[in-house]
Amino acid sequence: MPQVTADVHTDGMEIIELDPADGDLVSGAFDVMTAAHAVDHPENPAPHRATFVAGLSYPPPDEDEAHFVAVEDGQVRALLGIGMPNRGNLHFAWAWIIVHPEHRRKGIGSALVDTYVAYARGRGRTELTLDTHMSWEGGLERSKAGQLFNEHHGFKLALTWINRRCAVDALDAATEQALLEKAEAAAGDEYEVISWIGRTPEELVETMARIDSTILAEVPLGELGLEPETIDAELKNAKADRNEAMGMKIVQTVARHRGTGEVVANTCVFIHDDGEFPDAYQGITIVDKDHRGHRLGLLLKIVNVRLVRENFPHIRAIWTDNADVNAPMIDINVTLGYEIVDAGGEFSRKFEA
Ligand SMILES: CC(C)(COP(=O)(O)OP(=O)(O)OC[C@H]1O[C@@H](n2cnc3c(N)ncnc32)[C@H](O)[C@@H]1OP(=O)(O)O)[C@@H](O)C(=O)NCCC(=O)NCCS
Protein backbone atom coordinates (compact mmCIF):
# COMPACT_ATOMS: atom_id res chain seq x y z
CA MET A 1 0.00 0.00 0.00
CA PRO A 2 1.49 3.40 -0.93
CA GLN A 3 2.31 5.71 1.93
CA VAL A 4 0.52 9.02 2.19
CA THR A 5 2.80 11.98 1.90
CA ALA A 6 1.57 15.37 3.05
CA ASP A 7 4.55 17.09 1.46
CA VAL A 8 5.98 15.91 -1.86
CA HIS A 9 8.94 17.64 -3.49
CA THR A 10 9.36 17.40 -7.28
CA ASP A 11 12.04 19.52 -8.95
CA GLY A 12 11.54 22.67 -6.90
CA MET A 13 7.81 22.11 -6.63
CA GLU A 14 6.25 21.30 -3.32
CA ILE A 15 2.88 19.63 -2.84
CA ILE A 16 1.35 20.73 0.43
CA GLU A 17 -1.88 19.74 2.12
CA LEU A 18 -3.90 22.94 2.21
CA ASP A 19 -4.55 24.28 5.70
CA PRO A 20 -7.79 26.34 5.59
CA ALA A 21 -6.14 28.75 8.06
CA ASP A 22 -3.28 29.52 5.64
CA GLY A 23 -4.74 32.63 4.00
CA ASP A 24 -1.99 33.05 1.39
CA LEU A 25 -2.20 29.50 0.10
CA VAL A 26 -6.01 29.56 0.16
CA SER A 27 -5.95 32.80 -1.86
CA GLY A 28 -3.39 31.36 -4.27
CA ALA A 29 -5.56 28.28 -4.75
CA PHE A 30 -8.61 30.40 -5.48
CA ASP A 31 -6.63 32.50 -7.97
CA VAL A 32 -5.73 29.31 -9.86
CA MET A 33 -9.42 28.37 -10.03
CA THR A 34 -10.30 31.84 -11.32
CA ALA A 35 -7.53 31.87 -13.95
CA ALA A 36 -8.51 28.39 -15.19
CA HIS A 37 -12.18 29.34 -15.33
CA ALA A 38 -11.37 32.37 -17.51
CA VAL A 39 -9.49 30.20 -20.00
CA ASP A 40 -11.27 26.82 -19.87
CA HIS A 41 -14.98 27.57 -19.47
CA PRO A 42 -15.68 31.27 -18.96
CA GLU A 43 -19.39 30.88 -19.80
CA ASN A 44 -19.96 28.60 -16.79
CA PRO A 45 -20.53 30.06 -13.29
CA ALA A 46 -17.35 31.55 -11.87
CA PRO A 47 -15.82 30.05 -8.73
CA HIS A 48 -17.24 31.78 -5.65
CA ARG A 49 -14.56 32.86 -3.18
CA ALA A 50 -16.57 32.85 0.06
CA THR A 51 -18.15 29.47 -0.68
CA PHE A 52 -14.78 27.95 -1.61
CA VAL A 53 -13.10 29.28 1.53
CA ALA A 54 -15.93 28.17 3.83
CA GLY A 55 -16.07 24.76 2.16
CA LEU A 56 -12.45 24.09 3.15
CA SER A 57 -13.40 24.29 6.83
CA TYR A 58 -16.81 22.63 6.53
CA PRO A 59 -16.55 19.37 4.57
CA PRO A 60 -19.81 17.59 3.79
CA PRO A 61 -20.82 15.54 6.86
CA ASP A 62 -20.92 12.32 4.81
CA GLU A 63 -17.52 12.84 3.16
CA ASP A 64 -13.94 13.26 4.24
CA GLU A 65 -12.21 15.87 2.12
CA ALA A 66 -8.61 16.96 1.57
CA HIS A 67 -7.08 19.66 -0.60
CA PHE A 68 -3.52 19.90 -1.81
CA VAL A 69 -1.70 22.72 -3.58
CA ALA A 70 1.37 22.54 -5.81
CA VAL A 71 3.66 25.45 -4.95
CA GLU A 72 6.61 26.63 -7.03
CA ASP A 73 8.64 29.81 -6.42
CA GLY A 74 6.27 30.67 -3.60
CA GLN A 75 3.25 30.65 -5.95
CA VAL A 76 0.34 28.22 -6.06
CA ARG A 77 0.43 26.58 -9.48
CA ALA A 78 -2.27 23.95 -9.09
CA LEU A 79 -4.92 22.57 -6.81
CA LEU A 80 -6.24 19.08 -6.02
CA GLY A 81 -9.51 18.43 -4.20
CA ILE A 82 -10.28 14.92 -2.91
CA GLY A 83 -13.56 13.61 -1.49
CA MET A 84 -14.18 10.24 0.12
CA PRO A 85 -17.62 9.07 1.29
CA ASN A 86 -17.42 8.17 4.99
CA ARG A 87 -20.72 6.36 5.69
CA GLY A 88 -21.17 4.02 2.72
CA ASN A 89 -19.26 3.53 -0.53
CA LEU A 90 -16.04 3.25 1.43
CA HIS A 91 -14.28 1.85 -1.66
CA PHE A 92 -14.83 5.11 -3.54
CA ALA A 93 -12.94 8.42 -3.91
CA TRP A 94 -13.42 11.34 -6.28
CA ALA A 95 -11.15 14.25 -7.10
CA TRP A 96 -10.61 17.27 -9.30
CA ILE A 97 -7.35 18.84 -10.40
CA ILE A 98 -6.83 22.34 -11.78
CA VAL A 99 -3.47 23.55 -13.08
CA HIS A 100 -2.91 27.25 -13.74
CA PRO A 101 -3.20 27.76 -17.53
CA GLU A 102 0.30 29.23 -17.73
CA HIS A 103 1.89 26.21 -16.04
CA ARG A 104 0.46 23.27 -17.93
CA ARG A 105 2.29 20.44 -19.70
CA LYS A 106 5.10 20.50 -17.12
CA GLY A 107 3.97 17.45 -15.16
CA ILE A 108 2.29 19.34 -12.31
CA GLY A 109 -1.11 17.74 -12.95
CA SER A 110 0.54 14.31 -13.02
CA ALA A 111 2.27 14.95 -9.69
CA LEU A 112 -1.15 15.73 -8.22
CA VAL A 113 -2.60 12.50 -9.62
CA ASP A 114 0.20 10.65 -7.81
CA THR A 115 -0.69 12.52 -4.61
CA TYR A 116 -4.36 11.65 -5.06
CA VAL A 117 -3.74 7.98 -5.74
CA ALA A 118 -1.37 7.67 -2.75
CA TYR A 119 -3.82 9.48 -0.47
CA ALA A 120 -6.90 7.53 -1.48
CA ARG A 121 -5.17 4.14 -1.76
CA GLY A 122 -3.57 4.80 1.63
CA ARG A 123 -7.12 5.02 3.00
CA GLY A 124 -8.23 1.78 1.37
CA ARG A 125 -10.11 3.28 -1.58
CA THR A 126 -10.12 1.11 -4.70
CA GLU A 127 -12.36 3.01 -7.15
CA LEU A 128 -10.98 6.46 -7.87
CA THR A 129 -12.47 9.08 -10.17
CA LEU A 130 -11.43 12.33 -11.83
CA ASP A 131 -13.76 14.66 -13.68
CA THR A 132 -13.38 17.23 -16.42
CA HIS A 133 -15.33 19.53 -18.74
CA MET A 134 -15.94 18.24 -22.27
CA SER A 135 -17.63 19.43 -25.45
CA TRP A 136 -21.15 18.35 -26.41
CA GLU A 137 -22.90 18.58 -29.76
CA GLY A 138 -24.83 21.84 -29.92
CA GLY A 139 -22.75 23.36 -27.14
CA LEU A 140 -19.47 25.22 -26.80
CA GLU A 141 -16.11 23.82 -27.82
CA ARG A 142 -14.05 22.74 -24.79
CA SER A 143 -10.41 21.72 -24.57
CA LYS A 144 -9.72 17.99 -24.74
CA ALA A 145 -6.85 18.38 -22.25
CA GLY A 146 -8.75 17.02 -19.23
CA GLN A 147 -10.04 14.00 -21.10
CA LEU A 148 -6.63 13.14 -22.57
CA PHE A 149 -4.93 13.75 -19.24
CA ASN A 150 -7.34 11.46 -17.39
CA GLU A 151 -6.95 8.73 -20.01
CA HIS A 152 -3.17 9.16 -19.92
CA HIS A 153 -3.39 8.24 -16.22
CA GLY A 154 -5.52 5.14 -16.85
CA PHE A 155 -8.87 6.69 -15.91
CA LYS A 156 -11.70 5.67 -18.27
CA LEU A 157 -14.90 7.54 -19.01
CA ALA A 158 -17.58 6.11 -16.69
CA LEU A 159 -20.34 8.71 -16.76
CA THR A 160 -21.11 11.62 -19.08
CA TRP A 161 -23.39 14.45 -18.08
CA ILE A 162 -24.69 17.28 -20.20
CA ASN A 163 -24.50 20.74 -18.72
CA ARG A 164 -27.41 23.07 -19.49
CA ARG A 165 -28.30 26.60 -18.58
CA CYS A 166 -31.73 28.16 -18.28
CA ALA A 167 -32.48 31.86 -17.99
CA VAL A 168 -34.92 32.29 -15.10
CA ASP A 169 -37.27 34.02 -17.53
CA ALA A 170 -36.68 31.68 -20.47
CA LEU A 171 -40.41 31.09 -20.98
CA ASP A 172 -42.83 33.92 -21.63
CA ALA A 173 -45.39 34.33 -18.84
CA ALA A 174 -48.32 32.86 -20.80
CA THR A 175 -46.39 29.74 -21.86
CA GLU A 176 -45.16 29.17 -18.30
CA GLN A 177 -48.67 29.58 -16.88
CA ALA A 178 -50.15 27.19 -19.44
CA LEU A 179 -47.51 24.56 -18.62
CA LEU A 180 -48.14 24.99 -14.91
CA GLU A 181 -51.89 24.56 -15.31
CA LYS A 182 -51.43 21.47 -17.44
CA ALA A 183 -49.10 19.97 -14.84
CA GLU A 184 -51.50 20.84 -12.02
CA ALA A 185 -54.33 19.15 -13.88
CA ALA A 186 -52.21 16.01 -14.39
CA ALA A 187 -51.22 15.95 -10.69
CA GLY A 188 -54.85 16.22 -9.57
CA ASP A 189 -55.85 16.59 -5.90
CA GLU A 190 -53.71 13.86 -4.44
CA TYR A 191 -50.69 16.06 -3.74
CA GLU A 192 -50.01 19.14 -1.67
CA VAL A 193 -47.24 21.38 -3.05
CA ILE A 194 -45.05 22.91 -0.31
CA SER A 195 -42.15 25.34 -0.79
CA TRP A 196 -39.57 26.90 1.50
CA ILE A 197 -36.25 28.73 1.47
CA GLY A 198 -33.47 27.52 3.75
CA ARG A 199 -33.75 24.61 6.17
CA THR A 200 -36.30 21.85 5.74
CA PRO A 201 -39.24 22.41 8.12
CA GLU A 202 -38.79 20.14 11.15
CA GLU A 203 -41.95 18.10 10.46
CA LEU A 204 -40.70 17.20 6.96
CA VAL A 205 -37.11 16.22 7.80
CA GLU A 206 -37.86 12.48 8.26
CA THR A 207 -39.83 12.13 5.04
CA MET A 208 -37.31 14.24 3.11
CA ALA A 209 -34.50 12.01 4.39
CA ARG A 210 -36.46 9.01 3.10
CA ILE A 211 -36.76 10.39 -0.44
CA ASP A 212 -33.13 11.62 -0.42
CA SER A 213 -32.06 8.04 0.40
CA THR A 214 -33.44 6.88 -2.95
CA ILE A 215 -31.33 9.29 -5.01
CA LEU A 216 -28.31 7.11 -5.69
CA ALA A 217 -30.55 4.17 -6.60
CA GLU A 218 -32.57 6.27 -9.03
CA VAL A 219 -30.16 8.54 -10.90
CA PRO A 220 -28.14 7.07 -13.79
CA LEU A 221 -24.57 6.42 -12.62
CA GLY A 222 -23.04 4.94 -15.78
CA GLU A 223 -20.13 2.66 -14.92
CA LEU A 224 -19.62 4.11 -11.44
CA GLY A 225 -19.85 1.46 -8.72
CA LEU A 226 -21.82 3.51 -6.19
CA GLU A 227 -24.33 1.91 -3.81
CA PRO A 228 -27.43 3.69 -2.43
CA GLU A 229 -26.77 5.35 0.92
CA THR A 230 -29.24 5.89 3.74
CA ILE A 231 -29.74 9.50 4.69
CA ASP A 232 -31.26 9.90 8.14
CA ALA A 233 -32.68 13.00 9.81
CA GLU A 234 -29.41 13.68 11.64
CA LEU A 235 -27.40 13.69 8.40
CA LYS A 236 -30.05 15.81 6.68
CA ASN A 237 -29.75 18.42 9.44
CA ALA A 238 -25.94 18.29 9.34
CA LYS A 239 -26.06 18.98 5.59
CA ALA A 240 -28.33 21.96 6.25
CA ASP A 241 -25.81 23.26 8.83
CA ARG A 242 -23.08 22.98 6.20
CA ASN A 243 -25.11 24.82 3.57
CA GLU A 244 -25.63 27.66 6.03
CA ALA A 245 -21.92 27.73 6.91
CA MET A 246 -21.07 27.92 3.21
CA GLY A 247 -23.51 30.76 2.59
CA MET A 248 -25.78 28.68 0.35
CA LYS A 249 -29.53 29.28 0.31
CA ILE A 250 -31.74 26.42 -0.82
CA VAL A 251 -35.02 27.13 -2.60
CA GLN A 252 -37.06 23.95 -2.36
CA THR A 253 -40.44 22.73 -3.55
CA VAL A 254 -41.90 19.31 -2.76
CA ALA A 255 -45.11 17.37 -3.35
CA ARG A 256 -46.59 15.66 -0.30
CA HIS A 257 -48.94 12.78 -0.95
CA ARG A 258 -52.10 13.60 0.97
CA GLY A 259 -52.95 9.92 1.55
CA THR A 260 -49.69 8.92 3.25
CA GLY A 261 -48.24 12.27 4.34
CA GLU A 262 -44.97 11.32 2.62
CA VAL A 263 -42.99 13.66 0.40
CA VAL A 264 -42.97 11.87 -2.97
CA ALA A 265 -41.35 14.49 -5.20
CA ASN A 266 -38.71 17.09 -4.62
CA THR A 267 -36.76 19.77 -6.44
CA CYS A 268 -34.32 22.40 -5.18
CA VAL A 269 -32.08 25.23 -6.36
CA PHE A 270 -28.87 26.32 -4.62
CA ILE A 271 -28.08 30.05 -4.49
CA HIS A 272 -25.03 31.84 -3.10
CA ASP A 273 -26.09 34.19 -0.32
CA ASP A 274 -24.54 37.05 -2.29
CA GLY A 275 -26.74 39.60 -4.00
CA GLU A 276 -24.30 40.04 -6.88
CA PHE A 277 -23.68 36.50 -8.07
CA PRO A 278 -26.05 35.88 -11.01
CA ASP A 279 -25.90 32.09 -11.26
CA ALA A 280 -27.77 29.42 -9.31
CA TYR A 281 -27.50 25.62 -9.44
CA GLN A 282 -30.24 23.09 -9.82
CA GLY A 283 -29.98 20.40 -7.14
CA ILE A 284 -31.58 16.99 -7.34
CA THR A 285 -35.08 16.64 -8.73
CA ILE A 286 -36.65 13.31 -7.89
CA VAL A 287 -40.12 11.79 -8.13
CA ASP A 288 -40.83 8.58 -6.23
CA LYS A 289 -41.24 5.59 -8.60
CA ASP A 290 -44.87 5.04 -7.53
CA HIS A 291 -45.82 8.63 -8.30
CA ARG A 292 -44.34 9.15 -11.75
CA GLY A 293 -46.43 10.09 -14.77
CA HIS A 294 -48.37 12.87 -12.97
CA ARG A 295 -46.19 15.75 -14.24
CA LEU A 296 -44.92 16.33 -10.70
CA GLY A 297 -41.36 17.05 -11.87
CA LEU A 298 -42.47 19.81 -14.24
CA LEU A 299 -44.98 21.20 -11.73
CA LEU A 300 -42.43 21.49 -8.92
CA LYS A 301 -39.77 23.02 -11.14
CA ILE A 302 -42.09 25.77 -12.37
CA VAL A 303 -43.26 26.60 -8.84
CA ASN A 304 -39.65 26.63 -7.70
CA VAL A 305 -38.30 28.89 -10.46
CA ARG A 306 -41.07 31.36 -9.65
CA LEU A 307 -39.87 31.39 -6.06
CA VAL A 308 -36.32 32.01 -7.24
CA ARG A 309 -37.46 34.96 -9.36
CA GLU A 310 -39.55 36.48 -6.56
CA ASN A 311 -36.98 36.14 -3.78
CA PHE A 312 -33.69 36.48 -5.62
CA PRO A 313 -34.23 38.99 -8.43
CA HIS A 314 -30.48 39.17 -9.13
CA ILE A 315 -30.39 35.53 -10.26
CA ARG A 316 -30.31 35.38 -14.06
CA ALA A 317 -29.74 31.70 -14.76
CA ILE A 318 -29.97 28.21 -13.30
CA TRP A 319 -27.45 25.54 -14.27
CA THR A 320 -28.01 21.81 -14.33
CA ASP A 321 -26.09 18.62 -15.10
CA ASN A 322 -27.95 15.56 -16.31
CA ALA A 323 -26.56 12.16 -17.22
CA ASP A 324 -26.68 11.94 -21.01
CA VAL A 325 -29.06 8.95 -20.71
CA ASN A 326 -31.54 10.63 -18.33
CA ALA A 327 -34.24 11.24 -20.97
CA PRO A 328 -37.23 12.00 -18.67
CA MET A 329 -35.32 14.70 -16.76
CA ILE A 330 -33.85 16.18 -19.93
CA ASP A 331 -37.33 16.35 -21.53
CA ILE A 332 -38.59 18.44 -18.61
CA ASN A 333 -35.55 20.71 -18.72
CA VAL A 334 -35.81 21.32 -22.45
CA THR A 335 -39.52 22.17 -22.02
CA LEU A 336 -38.49 24.74 -19.40
CA GLY A 337 -35.98 26.36 -21.75
CA TYR A 338 -32.68 24.76 -20.67
CA GLU A 339 -30.03 24.95 -23.40
CA ILE A 340 -26.84 22.92 -23.80
CA VAL A 341 -23.61 24.68 -22.77
CA ASP A 342 -21.07 21.87 -22.52
CA ALA A 343 -20.62 18.47 -20.91
CA GLY A 344 -18.62 16.77 -18.25
CA GLY A 345 -17.12 13.36 -17.79
CA GLU A 346 -16.44 11.32 -14.69
CA PHE A 347 -13.44 9.09 -15.38
CA SER A 348 -12.76 6.12 -13.12
CA ARG A 349 -9.89 3.81 -12.39
CA LYS A 350 -10.16 0.65 -10.32
CA PHE A 351 -7.36 -0.73 -8.15
CA GLU A 352 -6.90 -4.11 -6.48
CA ALA A 353 -8.05 -4.14 -2.85
C1 LIG B 1 -5.92 18.51 -17.42
C2 LIG B 1 -4.86 19.30 -16.62
C3 LIG B 1 -5.08 19.02 -15.13
C4 LIG B 1 -3.48 18.76 -17.02
O1 LIG B 1 -2.48 19.35 -16.19
P1 LIG B 1 -0.93 19.40 -16.67
O2 LIG B 1 -0.11 19.80 -15.51
O3 LIG B 1 -0.84 20.21 -17.91
O4 LIG B 1 -0.72 17.85 -17.01
P2 LIG B 1 0.68 17.09 -17.25
O5 LIG B 1 1.73 18.05 -17.71
O6 LIG B 1 0.99 16.30 -16.03
O7 LIG B 1 0.27 16.12 -18.45
C5 LIG B 1 0.38 14.71 -18.39
C6 LIG B 1 -0.10 14.11 -19.69
O8 LIG B 1 -1.50 14.34 -19.88
C7 LIG B 1 -1.77 14.50 -21.30
N1 LIG B 1 -2.18 15.87 -21.56
C8 LIG B 1 -2.26 16.90 -20.68
N2 LIG B 1 -2.70 18.02 -21.31
C9 LIG B 1 -2.87 17.70 -22.60
C10 LIG B 1 -3.29 18.44 -23.75
N3 LIG B 1 -3.60 19.74 -23.66
N4 LIG B 1 -3.37 17.78 -24.93
C11 LIG B 1 -3.05 16.49 -25.03
N5 LIG B 1 -2.63 15.73 -23.97
C12 LIG B 1 -2.56 16.33 -22.78
C13 LIG B 1 -0.45 14.24 -21.99
O9 LIG B 1 -0.38 12.84 -22.21
C14 LIG B 1 0.56 14.68 -20.94
O10 LIG B 1 1.82 14.10 -21.11
P3 LIG B 1 2.91 14.85 -22.08
O11 LIG B 1 2.92 16.31 -21.70
O12 LIG B 1 4.19 14.15 -21.76
O13 LIG B 1 2.42 14.64 -23.48
C15 LIG B 1 -4.92 20.82 -16.96
O14 LIG B 1 -4.97 20.99 -18.36
C16 LIG B 1 -6.11 21.51 -16.35
O15 LIG B 1 -6.03 22.03 -15.25
N6 LIG B 1 -7.26 21.51 -17.08
C17 LIG B 1 -8.51 22.08 -16.54
C18 LIG B 1 -9.09 21.18 -15.44
C19 LIG B 1 -9.32 19.75 -15.88
O16 LIG B 1 -9.87 19.46 -16.92
N7 LIG B 1 -8.87 18.79 -15.05
C20 LIG B 1 -8.99 17.38 -15.41
C21 LIG B 1 -8.44 16.48 -14.35
S1 LIG B 1 -9.49 16.47 -12.91
UniProtKB/TrEMBL annotation:
<dbReference type="Pfam" id="PF00583">
    <property type="entry name" value="Acetyltransf_1"/>
</dbReference>
<keyword id="KW-0808">Transferase</keyword>
<feature type="domain" description="N-acetyltransferase">
    <location>
        <begin position="13"/>
        <end position="162"/>
    </location>
</feature>
<dbReference type="InterPro" id="IPR016181">
    <property type="entry name" value="Acyl_CoA_acyltransferase"/>
</dbReference>
<dbReference type="GO" id="GO:0016747">
    <property type="term" value="F:acyltransferase activity, transferring groups other than amino-acyl groups"/>
</dbReference>
<protein>
    <recommendedName>
        <fullName>N-acetyltransferase domain-containing protein</fullName>
    </recommendedName>
</protein>
<dbReference type="InterPro" id="IPR050832">
    <property type="entry name" value="Bact_Acetyltransf"/>
</dbReference>
<keyword id="KW-0012">Acyltransferase</keyword>
<dbReference type="InterPro" id="IPR000182">
    <property type="entry name" value="GNAT_dom"/>
</dbReference>
